[in-house]
Amino acid sequence: MLGLMQNWPLLCHRIIDHAAAIHGQQEVVTRSVEGPIHRTTYAAIRGNALKVGQQLDRHGIKIGDRVATIAWNTWRHLEAWYGIMGIGAVCHTVNPRLFPDQIVWIVNHAQDRIMMTDLTFVPLLEKIADKMPSVERYIVFTDRAHMPQTTLKNAIAYEDWIAEADGDFRWKEFDENTAAAMCYTSGTTGDPKGVLYSHRSNVLHAMMANNPDALGTRAKDTMLPVVPLFHANSWGIAFSAPSMGTKLVMPGPKLDGASVYELLSTEKVTYSAGVPTVWLMLLQYMATEKKTLPDLKVVVCGGSAMPRSMIKAFMDMGVEPRHAWGMTEMSPLGTVGALKPPFANLTGEAALDVLQTQGYPPFGVQMKITDDAGKPQPWDAKTFGRLKVSGPSISKAYYRLDANILDEDGFFDTGDVATMDPYGYMRITDRSKDVIKSGGEWISSIDLENLAVGHPKVLEAAVIGVQHPKWDERPLLIVQLKPDQQATREDILQYMDGKIAKWWMPDDVQFVDSIPHTATGKILKIALREQFKDYRFPTAAA
Ligand code: ADP
Fold it and tell me: Which of 13, 202, 384, 541 has the smallest number of Cβ neighbours within 10 A?
């Protein structure tokens, strides 16, 4: 027997409809690419999103066609986001930090028909546009006064383009399983892979993200997503915040410590989300300038492991740090770190121990850890295993790639290695390709990095496995010191000694001027491996 409830398809544009109807006057504030702070409301965003939909429809964009954006977090990007999805087209967010060749590859693979972009990226696109023949028209997120002369095909200023529409338009009707958005993984190994979100998966993910122990903002909160709309579905914030009526503060192109601080402070932001490098810049700025943020309540940090020293720095400021783990393929939330019973009342180091894990999965994400043969491993907080996940907002395949990515139980292998504890807290110990295999045992590069950055003079640390004649691989610690700081190999090793098992201690420390990062802010270990490919441990040579 079937239930007798309405069939109300879970469609992304219903979120902006709701925001406009119930929280219509709630603000969306942007540091615009042109410079000034811009203010609008959810009602106005919906109005313009309808105009975007109307214009795309007139252009002949059909259900399933791809419309790309290469753009910062701004109100215009949000209008385009909902306008594209609302007619059943696919909003393909492209990461501008990728190499130009990767952008070309991705746009050609996706066959994007229209490209919307910011002033910042016009010069970049002009250089590669002739290699992207599928793009019929470029729309620049600006007004006529700021529109540059450009060679981009059929280029028009966004404000002029939407002014051609009257907004007397209705969203298209389609099934909730229709594709809504697309995001390519950054492809540090092999070609990028296209992750294709559906309307249903995005709406369910927004509800999951709104769980108070996850992102959980309220209508009275203000959220500043430092995480860009082009990084892993903006961690779902472009859906979760409007669905709650939360005020949004969009940082535009300026993500340095001073600029992020200024917005957090002047807009009285209560929630923010971003990768550790962003928080590193903010905390450094605040320490040097002796600044405070009395309104900030929660900082969500993910994309790479959040160092213990950073978790502590936020706690000392009275801010709740929520360590999140996820991936593009998971829409992206997988786990969030919050203190639940029996840990809820912990303080100090004991609280840090729990918050340093990547947290536990919300309802909607199922997890297991297995050995290489697929055998489930115990949740004892000690045993490492391959982390596999299943849920309604998790990929079952990649776009135009004919390969099965699920195991026999329908779980997706994340490529991460993790432990689980009896309470469901997950701790990432490594990417499976980064784990250091020493004498048949595994050493977690992330644990060593987290420990090393606790040293007061260390800005960032990376650990890679280097070949060793006896042990197969041993850890090499690569350190970037804070500006104007000096430290020796011995200083760093002495600091680490006694805090980890003896056999986990790095065999050597090398200092570098800067640690390279990927387009999504992760340490680029491939480049470090290349840089240190001829390196041999002094002890190994002896
Ligand atoms: P991309 O691969 O495009 O940079 P993703 O965000 O999809 O973007 O990367 C997902 C991977 O990032 C995860 O599989 C994991 O290895 C790593 N990651 C994400 N969050 C964390 C975290 N909190 N701690 C450690 N690693 C993390």
Answer: 541
* Whether residue 172 is found in the same domain as residue 96: yes
Tell me the CATH number at 421.
2.30.38.10
Residue 495 domain boundaries: 436-531
Query: Considering the entire predicted model, what is its pTM?
Result: 0.91
pLDDT one-digit tens code per residue, 25-74: 999 999 999 999 999 999 999 999 999 999 999 999 999 999 999 999 99
How many domains does the structure of the chain reveal?
Answer: 3
Q: H or E segment at 386?
A: strand 385-390
pLDDT 10s digits, 509-520: 999 999 999 888
**Given 159, 340, 442, 457, the catalytic residue:** 442
Q: What CATH code is carried by the domain that includes residue 447?
A: 3.30.300.30
Q: Do 359 and 323 contact (CB within 8 A), yes or no?
A: yes
Name the closest-CA residue to atom 4, ligand 1: 520
Q: Which of 387, 408, 431 is the last residue of a domain?
A: 431
Query: Which residues, 6 or more positions from 139, have their beta carbon under 8 angstroms from its beta carbon?
Result: 114, 115, 116, 117, 155, 156, 157, 158, 161
Ligand 1 centre and the CA of 304: distance in Å?
6
| Digit-coded pLDDT (tens) for 136-179 | 999 999 999 999 999 999 999 999 999 999 999 999 999 999 99
Residue 72 CA to residue 117 CA, distance in Å, equals 9
Same domain, 173 and 107: yes
- What is the 369 CA–ligand 1 centroid distance (Å)? 17
